[in-house]
Design goal:
The structure is a single chain. With 479 residues, the chain is an alpha+beta fold. It has 14 helices and 18 strands. A seven-stranded antiparallel β-sheet has the order 15-12-14-13-17-18-16. It has a five-stranded antiparallel β-sheet with strand order 5-6-10-8-9. It is globular.
Amino acid sequence: MRTPTAAGRDWAALARRLHGELRRAGDPGYVDVHRLFDPRFDDVRPVAVASVVSPHDVAHCLDFARRFDLPVSIRSGGHSYTGASTGRGMVIDVRPMSSISVGDGTATIGTGAALVDVYGELASHGVSIPAGSCPSVGLGGLALGGGVGVVSRRYGLTSDRVVAATVVTADGETIVADAQHHADLYWALRGGGGSFGVVTDLTLTTHAAGALSHAFYVWPWSAAAAVLTAWQSFAVAAPRELWSACHLLAPDNKSVEPSVSIPAVHVGPSSALATHLAALLDLIPTAPTTSSLTTSTYEGTMLLEAGCSDLTLAECHVRDETPGGTLQRGAFVAASDYFRHPIPSAGVDAMVQAVARRAASRRLGTGGVSFDVLGGAVDDLAGDATAYVHRGALFNAQYTAGWSGGGNGPLSRNRRSLAEIRGTVHRYGTGEAYQNYADAGLPNPQRAYYGDNLPRLIDVKQTYDPTDVFHQPQGVRPG
């Protein structure tokens, strides 16, 4: 029997059932709601975007998609590196579900809430959650994949803080998954991604949001190898209150040499941070050309890390997505690695040379690598305690290659550059990759993202979504 095709009257009937907005091509507002953060995916035109406001709206959409055999995509912030937040079928857009309710030691947050708004609202109550630095990312995608950030060594991953999730399953049922109810699904949602259902809100434990100290150092490019070598030993030995990263970046402006920099965030006073960083500076024979050391509010530090220190909360959103937003969308490709051992000098030197070659190419934009220290509270849980399997790594690397103007014209050149940079050190890694830095080029993404937890995730998928309604190209598939 041939599956019926939804006609105009069917779509109109669905629109009447929803309390949110349903937009199809040609409708006012469709262009704004169908676009993701990365302009590379602007040509993907969903048959409809449902901006849902409740689990009931989600259930209506799933029923409609099932009756008319429409593929379903789920969007929160729209930052999927591989475009998994959109598709040719129906997009269920949870951004309107962005409420934030703060209780005694917990916060219940809609999965469509932008991270900058989460930080702002929680800070007004004197609390926060450990999370990332991209201001416009949606909480849902961030938390379901793990959620690594500048206070993770002290407070853990975002997913580690999740104590309950409201989920609309493939058959349209709304359930609450926690340690006592649907415990297998609860386990999977903390790091297993969005393959199991439409998560509409999360309840997370909060921590006090006291002042943070922040430092930023820049060295001449000639010192890049020495800086990365010193950072590796310094960062992993630092107390869990201290996070740092090492960035090697080729700029878009070819008249400027590549940069090597180290940002650091300390859950404590700037005097203690200065003492720790003095030990780092002693390991590097070249003095930094730029240095800063400040203390700020928790919210102020997160805005600084987001590149929004001179912006208001309203301005720290994507232009044309949020009223008053000023942030520009950007085209890029990315990849990642985890490391359990320091990268030897041969790898460090090769990495520095590869970034320098990208900087010398006039056909390539901004790109390079960021190494972020892990450990501390991230390792307080075992690798199978949640679906996030990457416990025990010293640090991870995110490789990025971006370009201006959008479109896919420079895509192949940037993919080659990305592969060259990653190829210098990939052999020293674990073979695993961070699921929130989705990489379309991985030969076996499920194994890289989920490791030894993959068989259990497949079992959960088989239980809650056996027909793969929530299909994602790199997601967990039923057995």
